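Q: Convert this sequence to structure tokens.
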Amino acid sequence: MTAYEIDNRAYDEDDAELPAALKRAHGGGSRPLCLCRPFSAKLPMVIERRSALGQAVIGQNTPGHDLYILRRMPGQGHEHNPACRHYEAPEGLTGRADHLGGAIRTDDDGAHHILRLAFPLSHKDKAAASDGAMTLGDASKLRKRFARLSLLGFLHHVLETAELHKMHKGLHGKRSWNVMRGRILETMSAQATSRYRNLAAFSFAPRIFSPEHKDELFRDWRVIERKAGAEKRSILLFAELKDIDAGQITFKHLPQRRFTLKPDIQKPFLDALERITGLMTGPRGAGHVIACAVVIVGEGDTLSIIDIAMTAATPHWIPFGSMAEYRLLVASDDQGRGYFKSLDYGQDNAIAALLLTDTGDSGTAVFLIDEQPTDAQVQAIKAIEDKGIPVWRCDIAEGRPALPPRRSRTSPTEAGVPGGTAP
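A:
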């Protein structure tokens, strides 16, 4: 939990007295401080005053009840502790950094992501479909590399925004498909495009199947299927891949429906699936194949997949793209470490494999190195170190990668803030 210091007093982010303290600080010119870095200097924050309608307020005479919102200082997102709600991973730790301001923008109130997508959301979205010409979220075919999100980039964006790339010992055994489903659908309610304000209306993720509720679960699907067919729009299906037979796919928890692959993506799909299933042969089994499919409802309620992105995931549902990454995640889980898995958004980026979050205020970026770092990795490592983030290098050939030691955090009270509580 994030905590703040205002006028020498500490407040948790859910403290009932925080809104009043923010109002006083805004009127008196006090600067709130974020207490997410107990080993380092406190970080100054900005108080934004907004009307009850969510509009920015200029001047002092505004009717109604204004809202006072804490925002990080521009350019300081990477300086917050990785566990802080104001943290933003810099270039070298996430593929998202390449898309910010282009394919991924934030609206004025910071509540929604405005996305530019390289796949169609309706039969009318010809520009997106032709501009992307995507198969299996292949971002390399974009005419402007970061102008639009491929489907795999979109899947990574959803998982990262939903914080499903995070893990620590307390989450072991607690992340089920229902948890994944809930976080994904919640995240989709805050995603938009220039044409569509809420992508949740396009999204479906099945509840865990049970024979006694199969009719009810099937009705859930039929509701969005009929609506998509009537409105000639796509369905964004998030599900765990189950099987493929004769060009038709089934997904777990949705056994009543079979989906036909568009002919021009069948071979790329099978190639990608072969690579992913090759990763599922680890010593403990990789666990899951998470998929996002763009589904079109045709005549007679036929279901066609026109694009699909997939990622292998550990038993704890953390995505990974190689056996070296899998071994690193297993070692981290076995030691009960806290981390964020870096997601590349479908780009061939030389980003860190993960960020350990239990090694101090900035965490530690872990790179997988094959004998010597590539030129791109050297540049990425320098960029991260220039941000003040320590880097740890792991030999890609190590069967059990060594990790840097933990560093415990202190509470705001221990850091010298009177009356503080742990963030």
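DSSP finds nine helices and 20 strands in the chain.
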